[in-house]
Design brief:
2 domains, Alpha-Beta Plaits, 3-stranded antiparallel beta sheet, 135 residues, elongated
């Protein structure tokens, strides 16, 4: 497993994303990016070695070469949603084939893939946004 560093200038930070080296400086993203809004699970990206004389397996992101077909939606549960309801919603989405990554108990990145029930998942998430479950 290699590490891709994605600089996010507007936030003045970098995100670390795990990937698998496919070829010369090409990596497949193997997790759901949380801060990099334009990257998705499974995307193939071009990178350059990060300080190659000092650190092996670390790369700086350059560009997306091939999009995976996944779409990532970033949401946060509103404060009035109980833990049991959060678990049920995440389980419902997972059963539709949606992958997820979370930060704490409220912030989630849901990754809707080509093999999932995309339309049903998006409609469900939009409904949750409309009913103030997600913000």
């Amino acid at each position: 497993m290699s590490i891709i560093q994605r600089r996010i200038p507007e936030l003045e930070i970098s995100e670390i994303i795990y990937g698998t080296l496919i070829g010369d400086n090409c990596l497949e993203i193997m997790e759901i990016p949380f801060l990099s809004k334009d990257l998705n699970y499974g995307d193939l990206v071009r990178c350059k070695p990060f300080m190659p004389d000092y650190v092996e397996g670390y790369y700086d992101f350059i560009e997306v070469i091939r999009f995976s077909g996944y779409t990532t939606i970033h949401v946060a549960f509103t404060q009035n949603v109980l833990l049991e309801e959060k678990k049920k919603i995440v389980s419902d989405l997972y059963q539709m084939g949606v992958l997820y990554r979370r930060a704490g108990l409220s912030s989630f990145a849901f990754s809707i893939g080509p093999g999932s029930n995309r339309r049903k998942a998006v409609e469900y998430i939009e409904h949750l946004i409309d009913t103030d479950v997600f913000c």
